[in-house]
Design goal:
The chain is mainly alpha-helical and 194 residues long. It has 3 helices and no strands.
Length: 194
Amino acid sequence: MKMFWGLWLLCLAGSLRAVHAGPLRKTGKTGNKAAPQEEVSVLMFGVIQLSESLNYVYETTEAKIDKISQTLRRLEGTLQELGRETEQAAEVEKQIKEVIQLLQAQMAKQQAQTKTTKDWLASIEQEEVELKTKVTKLEMYVNTKMSIKELQERAEEQSNIVRGLQYLTQFQKDNIETQNEKLSKLQKMSEAMT
């Protein structure tokens, strides 16, 4: 680059000498005299200063362009990083939605199981009531026609059936409570993820 400026200065100096060597117009004051050496030196000094200023402007502009290019490359890298982070966030959001859908499906399944268990429990309780009614009727019938030993055997048998039903009823109630607790946990997890 400095060579370019040197050539440019050489051409400029040559052209000044060519101008110097050419005929001058006549004016009232100067006549046919050539410009004194001092004026040429001042002009050459001005040209040199101008070329140095232009060279300085060129170099500072080049440095600024380099700095801008570096800044643009950094910004490009930051933009690419933001793009990757956006893609990762979208993937995480997709996974969260899938988990929520899975939890909702599990909650629906748990609710269906709970309803089935409650219905079954209600039918067992109804059977228990009907059985107690039958026992009462049977006791009335026995009082009139059966012996005490037969009565005791039937009562023991009915008592065992009632205890078995009570055990099953308690088991189902415990099962429903467990299902309700799981359902509650799933609902809390679903609410926390949304």
